[in-house]
Amino acid sequence: MTRTLLCFGDSNTHGTPPIVTRGQPYRRFGVDTRWPRVVAASLPDWTVVEEGLPGRTTQFPDPVMGAHMDGRDGLKIALQSHGPIDVLAVMLGTNDTKTRFGATPEKIVAGIAGLLDIAMSLEMQERHGGFRILVVCPPPVLEQGPISSEFVGARDISLRLSALYAALAKARGVGFLDAGSVIEVSPVDGIHFEDEAHRRLGSAVAKAVSQL
């Protein structure tokens, strides 16, 4: 029986390559590179749904990119657009470290908790006949490259997220994967993943999903 995995995240789930020049044209890695597609190749009996939106946050409407960057609304839409699903993988938090949001590590983890509240609600669980959840903590950012001015102070914040995400996942009884233990962000822009990192992350997520 085919099972379904919904991957919910930001530009790194979408497959945005490292940004070389600010304002460069839209680009996206191909299906042979993006980590959700690597998961699909590793789990041939699964259907993998990609729901990655560049700029998405756990909880903040973005004054620059738009109110639709708030992941809470996006998750509700995704869970009502697809289904039934068997596993939801959530990897968000990188954009929450942007300077303009002024978010502490605890505030960012509260955003993840809010997403778990939505996903674990009776309404959503009944809609899909029950599904498991994998929380993926994104790797720490580097404050360098063409968009570093948007992430002033983000390095220290992002370094504290893994332990907080892990504690939350344990408290909620959901799966956890620290992406920073598997990959690093690209030194080109300090935010996005190189193609090889996508492949390694995809393999790690596939293993974590299988263990759920």
Automatic annotation (TrEMBL):
Gene3D superfamilies: SGNH hydrolase. Keywords: Hydrolase. SUPFAM superfamilies: SGNH hydrolase. It comes from the Bacteria. InterPro entries: SGNH_hydro (IPR013830), SGNH_hydro_sf (IPR036514). One of its GO terms (molecular function) is hydrolase activity. The keyword Cytoplasm does not apply. This is SGNH/GDSL hydrolase family protein. It holds the Pfam family Lipase_GDSL_2. Residues 7-200 form the SGNH hydrolase-type esterase domain.
